[in-house]
Amino acid sequence: MTQASDRTDAAQGLEGVLLANRDRIVRFLEVRGAGDTAEDLFQDLWMRLTERRTGPIADPLPYVMRAANNLMLDRYRSGRQSQLRDKAWSDATDGLGPSAERMLISREQLMLVEKAIAGTGDRPARIFRRFRMDGIQQREIAAEMGVSLSTVEADLRKVYAAIATARRQFDV
């Protein structure tokens, strides 16, 4: 078996574990403090695990659960760092607010993200907006649009990947 097919088999195996244990993983994330963002974190977990190049995993469910726990730890650390950074920035600027230059950069970045979302197609963009902006649950969106839940999830992954690509342009 080739190394490329090993990666494909591993990704498909993890996708199967994620699909079969979706509700369990979402509940796990909710209990760990994700609350209403558990669905979003499940999507992030899916992206992390299926894009990663790994070999065969002997016991995939504990691997996935450990990855979900690590995701929650990363989220906590990131939130804590963000709070500290915001406080330091606020203290440094004495609450004067963002500069005109920063606002211009933010607008340009927003336009890039909006273009990336639009580039995924009409249905994925609508699903993303209904889920992320309107706060509609994925199951409701699936019923509303007459598609399966897995289609909604696949479209969200497509949009998230496009946004991630756009965000990498910000760091250039």
CATH topology group of the largest domain: Rna Polymerase Sigma Factor, Chain: A
Mean pLDDT: 85
CATH class of the largest domain: Mainly Alpha
Report low-confidence residues grouped into runs of 5 or more: 1-11
Total strand count, please? 0
- Gyration radius, rounded: 19 Å
Characterize the overall form.
globular
**What is the correct CATH architecture of the largest domain?**
Orthogonal Bundle
Proportion in helices = over 70%
Tally of separate helices: 8
| Main sheet summary | none
The run of helices and strands is HHHHHHHH
Query: Helix- and strand-based class?
Result: mainly alpha
Tally of structural domains: 2
- Beta-strand content bin: under 5%
What can be said about this structure in brief?
This protein is an all-alpha fold and 172 residues long. The chain has eight helices and no strands. It has two domains: 1-95, Orthogonal Bundle (Rna Polymerase Sigma Factor, Chain: A); 98-172, Winged helix-like DNA-binding domain superfamily/Winged helix DNA-binding domain (Arc Repressor Mutant, subunit A), CATH 1.10.10.
Account of the protein in words:
- The chain has 172 residues and is mainly alpha-helical.
- It folds into two domains: 1-95, Rna Polymerase Sigma Factor, Chain: A (Orthogonal Bundle), CATH 1.10.1740; 98-172, Orthogonal Bundle (Arc Repressor Mutant, subunit A), CATH 1.10.10.10.
- It has eight helices and no strands.
- The protein has helices at 3-20, 22-34, 38-51, 60-93, 100-118, 122-133, 138-145, 149-170.
- It starts with a helix and ends with a helix.
- The model is unreliable at 1-11 (pLDDT under 50).
